[in-house]
Specification:
The structure holds two protein chains of two kinds. By secondary structure, chain A is mostly helical. Chain A folds into two domains: 1-62; 67-306, MetI-like fold (Orthogonal Bundle). Chain A is 71% helix and 1% strand. Chain A has helices at 14-62, 81-112, 118-130, 133-147, 154-178, 182-190, 195-224, 227-232, 253-258, 265-296; strands at residues 73-74, 77-78. A two-stranded antiparallel sheet of chain A has the order 1-2. In chain A, helix 1 (14-62) crosses helix 10 and helix 2 runs antiparallel to helix 7 (195-224). The radius of gyration of chain A is 26 Å and the shape is globular. By secondary structure, chain B is an alpha/beta fold. Chain B has a single domain, classed as P-loop containing nucleotide triphosphate hydrolases (Rossmann fold). Chain B is 36% helix and 24% strand. Chain B contains eleven helices and ten strands. Chain B has a six-stranded mixed β-sheet with strand order 6-7-8-3-9-10, sandwiched between helices. In chain B, strand 1 and strand 2 form a beta hairpin. In chain B, helix 4 packs parallel to helix 7. Chain B is globular and about 55 Å long. Classes of the chains: A mainly alpha, B alpha/beta. The interface between A and B is medium-sized, with 27 and 35 residues.
Chain lengths: 307, 275
Amino acid sequence: MTTVPVKGTVPARGHAARGEARRLVLRRLADRLWWSLCAAALLGIVVPVVWVLAGVVGKGVRGWQWSVLTTTTQGTGGGLANAIMGTLVIVAGVLVIAGSVGVAGGVYLAEFCRDGRGGLLRGASEVLAGVPSIVLGYVGYIVLVVHFHWGFSLLSALLVLSAMVVPYIVKTTEVALRNVPTAYRDGSEALGMPRTYALRRVVLRPAVPGIVTGLILAMAIAIGETAPLLYTANWSNGYPSAHLLHAPVAYLTYPVWTFYNQPQASAHRLSAEAALLLVALVVVLIGLSRLVVARTQRHTEGHRGAR
Amino acid sequence: MVQLLENATTGLAGSSLPAPEPLAARVALAAHGLTLSYGGTRVLADVDLDVPTGAVTALVGPTGCGKTTFLRSLNRMNDRVPGFRLSGSLELFGEDLYDGRSDPLVVRRRVGMLFQRPNPFPLSIRENVVAGVKAHRLARRSELDSIAEERLRQVGLWEAVSDRLGTSPFRLSGGQQQLLCLARALAVSPEVLLLDEPTSSLDPVSTAAVEEMLASLVPDITVVIVTHNLAQARRLADHTAFFHQGRLVEHGPTVRLFEDPSEEATRQYLSGRFG
C-alpha cells in the first residue's frame, strides 16, 4: 500500500520543504512571465488591426457619399464604381488563373511527384514568391504591355498578379494535403479506391480549409497590390470593358495612393473612401472563407459538431 | 446492360453459394517462398503459409517480427512503399497476386482491411459505409441507402446510428467507429478480411463487441488477424501462425499451437516468456 501524495499534504520538512517552496515560487513566476509574453504578442496583433481599422473607417465614413458606389471617376472627383468593378474583375480573374495553377501545383507536389523530383518546382515557386512585386510589374510591363503590344490591359494585370500569388497557393495547398492524416489514405487505398478518386472524395476534403485559406490570402494580396497594377492595368475612368487586351482597368488601390497626393478635397475624399472599400472587401472575403470552411468541415475529426 | 449490371451486383453480394470444392483447394491465400524487403533490408524470409478458406487465422509474434508487413502484402498495401520488394509467390484462390495481370484495386476490393486505429473518412456515417461501393460502382445510387442499412445492421450499429446517418462519424465511440469501418469494408463484399490489431486501441467492452462481430463473419469470409493479444488469438482463431525475427517459425490449429508447440521459441512466446 503506497500513499499517493496530494498537493499541500506532502510531508516535507526543513531544508527540503524550503527548497520546494522556492521552486514553486519560481515556477509560478516563470508561468506569469510566459503568460504575459503571450498576451503582449496578442496585443501586438490586435492593436495595429484596431488602429488601422479605426483610422480607415473614421476617415472613410466622415465624408461618405453613397454616390461613390454608383458613379464613375471624373478626374479627381466623382465616384469609384469603375474602380470597384475593376478590382472585383481582377480578383475574380486571379482566383481563376492563380487558383487553378496553384492548387494543381500543390496537389502535384503533395501527391504525385516522387521524392526529389519536386525540388525544382518547389524552389522555383519560392524564388517567385521572393521577387518584389514592383519587379514583377516592371517585367510584365516590358514583356506583356510593350513587347507583346498588349497595351495596358486586364490580361497583363491578371498574369502579373497571378504569378505573384501562385507560390502562396502552391505552398498552402501542399502543406494542407501533407497534413491530412495517413489513416485516410490507408483507408481509401485498402478499399481499392483509385488514387485520384480517393483524392477527390476523401483526402482533399480535410485539406479544404488550408487550401481556402491560401486562396483567400492570395485574393487579399491581389486586392491590396498597387505597384504591378500601375505598370500593367494603369487606370481608367470608365468601367472595365469586355476586352482582355488594349483596355486599361481601374482598381481601388490606385486612388488611395494617387489621389491622396492631389490638392483637391474631392480627391482626398475618394482616397479615404477607396481605403474603406478595400478593407470592407477583405473583411467580406474572410467571412466568405469562414463559411466555406465551416461547410466542408462538418464531418471531420477536428469539428465534431458538438457545441 | 441493366441485366448485366444486376447479375454483377448479385454475384458480388455473394448470394449464390460457391460449388463445394475438394478440401485441398480450400486455400484462400497461399504464400510460397515469400521474401519481403524494404530497400535492401529483409523483413521476412522464405515464408510458406496456406491460409484456409472460411476460417480465422491469427498472425502472432513479437514487435518487428514481420507479421504486419506480411499482412499488408496480402492486399498489396506495400506497393507504394518506396523500396518494397517481394520475391516468391502469393496466391489468392489460386491467382498470383503480384503478376502483371493482377489489378491492385481489384485485389483490395476482394481482400479488405481493418486498421489498428479506427479510420472513418471525413464523410457522413452513411457515406462512410458506401464509400467503397461507390468507388467500385457496385450498385446504383438508389440502392445505396439499403446497402448502408444492411451493412450497419450486420455489424450491429444500426440501432445506434439510424437517426443520424447524415452526421459525422467522429462523434461515435472508438468501438463504434471501428464497427463502422468494418461495415465499410464489408460493403464491397470482400472474400478475405485482413485485420491489423483491430482492437488494440479499444476498451474491453468495445473489444468484445468487435470480436463477436468478427467471429460471425466466418465461414462466409476468410479472416486473417494480426494481434499482440494472445488471449484474443486463442478466442478467435482457428489457425495460428507464429512469426519471429523475420521468419515463420510454426503454424497450425490454434489449440495445437498453444498446447503442444513443436518449437521452443513458440512455446516461450505463447507462454509469455518474451513479447
